[in-house]
Amino acid sequence: MNFATAQESTDWLTVGGDRGNMRHSTLSQINRENVSQLELAWEYKTGELTDGRGKIIECTPIVIDGVMYVTTAYLKLVALDASTGTKLWEFDPLEHSGQPYPLASGGVNRGAAYWSDGKPNGKRRILHGISMGFLYSLDAKTGQLDPEFGDHGVKDLREDFEEDLSKLGYGPTSAPAICGDVVVLGVSCGEGPGIAAPGDIRGFDVRSGKQLWRFHTVPQAGEFGNETWEGDSWKDRGAANAWGGASSDPERGLIFCATGSAAFDFYGGDRKGDNLFANCVIAIDAKTGKRKWHFQTLRHDLWDHDLPVYPNLVTVIRDGQSVDAVAQVTKTGFVYLFNRETGEPLFEIEEKEVPESDVDGEQASPTQPIPVKPAPFSAQHFDESNVTTIGEENRNFVLEKLKTIRSGPAFNPPSLEGTVVIPGFHGGANWSGASFDPETATLYLNSTNMPNIMTLVPAPAGSPFRFVHKGYIQFRDQEGYPAIAPPWGLLNAINLNTGEYLWKTVLGEYPELTERGIPQTGTESFGGTIVTAGGLVFVGGTTDEKFRAFDKSTGKKLWEYQLPAGGYATPSTYMIDGKQYVVIAAGGAGKLRTKAGESFMVFAIPDVPSFQ
Questions:
Q1: Contacts of residue 235, Cβ cutoff 8 Å, sequence gap at least 6
Q2: Where are the alpha helices (DSSP H) in 477-574?
Q3: How does pLDDT run across 399-452, given as a tens digit for each residue?
Q4: Does the reported pTM lie above 0.90?
Q5: To the nearest 5 percent, what fractions of the chain are helix, strand and coil?
Q6: Measured between alpha carbons, how far is 56 from 592 in angstroms, rounded to an integer?
Q7: How many CB atoms lie within 10 A of CB 474?
Q8: Contact, 524 vs 331, CB < 8 A?
Q9: What burial letters (b/e) apply to 291-313, b meaning 16+ CB within 10 Å?
């Protein structure tokens, strides 16, 4: 390996690798030929695991100038020497949070952001947002709060609202996005039948913390899109929030966001219409907050089918020409691809008729926009034809349950009887998102096949809303396995030039089923892929708690490692002094309900010397 190569792509600048979140690295020291030699180089334990109890770590570490910045299960921000794991400093935001607001989404956090003024010996900041509703700016070297930002380094994200949000969940769970000197935040907030906080996308001055703009994801009176809400249903409407983060195109000065459903998730009789800008990919001017273009991937969402992750900013070939594009993966199991400048779809999108609702007052959208290419990466129906095949008892259990509820195609509206939701509430794709290889125009994503059952229930007398629901119930057999036929988890490779799949491979394993002679089924996964010039795709995320590397060209598994707890986070890779490392959080716990952990695990090829 030559020294020049060793100096390329040293950093992992954002949780998505670059500002456009391709999650691609040009590093190739770890490659197809030697990845089988990959070993643990060092491990950092957060110290937050108590008597085996802990919380999920969803953080993707960022690495800048030899320093790794991680966020822990309990929201601390820690700076580590990225070659040894030695702790350089630690910041606990809860010691600087002022009023103890409620935590949105259980207090998860997917990482921090980095900004510098570009000057030698100039300002370098780490921006850390937490779901309690605060944004912190810290000196990247010392971990000290920036006294010029907000109130002595702390921005209370509720202070710019006229409404009282003090008792509502409101705050970022995904890393801030940076475009020039603007830091952009999407937030997590309530999506239930009660009052929910606004899901507006907001831009702040990265130096002062002053709010520069606020994009109304539920348009106000006189604003574009307000007509997609019947009557006054837009008033005091919460959610439609970009909780999955944002991507940045600094050259164009644009931010790209993806929004979720409007509240209430599962009943829209009080919000008839298409409900812009819920479930939209949106291009926003980073300086002004003005919309440049948008595309709504799902109208009048009744399934909690949020766009769950930032768009990937990619480049593809069309008619022999290079075209900058935006790729969006969805819970519904599709990839939408748009011209980055105009928002024009790069593959045809058809309007497909979908089932009506018979719930009193509900008016489901009669059609939904479905891309012709790529083909869906998750099941688009569930009925007797594709129930589980892992055993006769399992199959009969599911068939009996199907007799009591509604099943059939995707976009089947919730009902009082109970309706199968396919793909389920976790997708399809989720915040795991996708990675993109610019060398081959290939998108890599892990996907899930796990149906849910949604049952509406009339709200108690005197409630300000008409319906509640019985819960987020996954459709499982009597043993607890998914009701649908395997595979339950896949790793997919899609050529975005052609819209065709290069390969699919099963991702994850239930060892006890393998012992029974059942072919590998795959598992649900949380935590996404990265792709490297070494010909590798790295991914954790599965319930078997393994971290794996695959050949990016063929999908062949080349390496796996048994983590101490589930790697429910997206990894990152970087190089220091000529040595490449790969890191993943192993926090377990969370929605997959495996044992908790407290580690960041860092891997390298042991016999590669570093330049020191």
A1: none
A2: 511-515
A3: 999 999 999 999 999 999 999 999 999 999 999 999 999 999 999 999 999 999
A4: yes
A5: 5, 40, 55
A6: 10
A7: 18
A8: no
A9: bbbbbbbbbbbbbbbbbbbbbbb
